[in-house]
Design a protein that fits this description.
Elements lengths: L14 E2 L4 E4 L5 H9 L2 H5 L15 H17 L3 E6 L6 E8 L8 E7 L7 H15 L5 E2 L5
Parallel strand pairs: 5-6
Antiparallel strand pairs: 1-2, 2-3, 3-4, 4-5
Helix pairs in contact: 1-3
Length: 149
Amino acid sequence: MAEFVPPDFDVPLRLETSEFVLEPLRPEHNEQDYDAWTSSMEHIALTPGYPDGSWPREMTPDENRADLARHARDFRDRTGFTYTVLEPASRNVIGCVYIYPLPDGDYDARALSWVRASHAQLDTPLWRVVSEWLASDWPFGTVEYASRT
């Protein structure tokens, strides 16, 4: 399988706006991440890009920590990139952004994102900023990322 990103590509470790900060998702985020998505499962299921119903699904905090460890391993191995979305001032987890290869597709990558229900107003701004970031700072020609209206 071809590399997801070129070996000389410096993967961004942070994206900051006045509304949110993106940093690599790690197991240390488990408690806040778990609270963010479990309190917003219905909202996330209705977010563009999550139509198949495979996630969110019920998980224990330990299963979630293992999932976060997998995402951190993918990031380290450069096979996928998952970012936690944080409030700038409080550093509370308010969402997540996933950037992964899209096998057998017309796109170089797929991006997905969600925000917790209490921050639903940030869904479109997050999509807009991440879309621009992927176009300007990442080595992908095309990215599948469900549009917001």
